[in-house]
Amino acid sequence: MIEVEILEQFGATQKSLAKGEILFDEGEPAQFYYQILHGEMRMVNRIEDGTEFLQGIFQAGQSLGEPPLFGAFPYPASAVASQPTVLLRLAYPALLELLRQNFDIHQRLFATLAKRLEYKSMQACEMSSYPAAHQLLTLLDYFKRQAGSPPSYLVTLTRQELADLTGLRVETVIRTVKQLELEGKLALRDGKIVL
């Protein structure tokens, strides 16, 4: 998203996390801009019964946690490394100066935030209004569009991850994927979903 050299020029430092390590917890105040160099982060809400709701998956080149930073509210979810991860972190005042001096970066950042808002709006509507098959197809189609709408899109998410992203039970996801395959709305190749 933001060029590494520019982030470092404004004082960004590297932070390394082991798999399972928490970057920030739900309810903590936001103080830094985070951008992933290597690895993968997940934004999750932990429910009292021990289950997790997966808000999003962020990979190399992506940033995370900006809305609370710009909105001055606590993190609404926790960020956990799903594999060993290296991030750049930049203090909020330095980020503001970077954005003041680089309007093109400012525009790209806010375009990214707008896309995330679109995703959250779609996700909220799907979860509250539609059956499981519609929810899954909408989510998978969204990821395919984000990948540039290739003719054949291989879904790398597991059934558990799809369940965590939609709020469905994993058993429901498994049954629904099989149903959608029988209806010809998706294909399975070596256990992976293909659109």
Task: Quickly describe the structure.
It holds the Pfam family cNMP_binding. With 195 residues, this protein is α+β, with helices and mostly antiparallel strands. It contains 7 helices and 10 strands.
- The number of distinct helices, counting runs of at least 4 residues, comes to 7
Strand tally? 10
Question: Under the CATH scheme, which architecture of the largest domain would be assigned?
Answer: Sandwich
- In terms of structural class, how would the helical and strand content be classed? alpha+beta
| Helical residue percent band | 40-55%
CATH C-level class of the largest domain: Mainly Beta
* Low-pLDDT stretches: none
Taking strands numbered 1, 2, ... along the chain, how are they ordered across the largest sheet? 1-8-3-6
CATH topology of the largest domain: Jelly Rolls
Largest sheet: 4 strands, antiparallel
How many domains? The number is: 2
Order of helices and strands: HEEEEEEHEEHHHHHEE
Rounded mean pLDDT is 90
Strand content: 25-35%
Describe the overall structure.
By secondary structure, the chain is an alpha+beta fold. The protein folds into two domains: 4-117, Jelly Rolls (Sandwich), CATH 2.60.120; 130-194, Arc Repressor Mutant, subunit A (Orthogonal Bundle), CATH 1.10.10. It contains seven helices and ten strands. A hairpin with a 5-residue loop joins strand 4 (40-46) and strand 5 (52-59). Helix 4 packs antiparallel against helix 5 and helix 6 (159-166) packs across helix 7 (170-182). The longest helix has 27 residues, at 103-129. The two termini are 27 Å apart. It comes from Hymenobacter actinosclerus. Keywords: DNA-binding, Kinase, Transcription, Transcription regulation, Transferase.
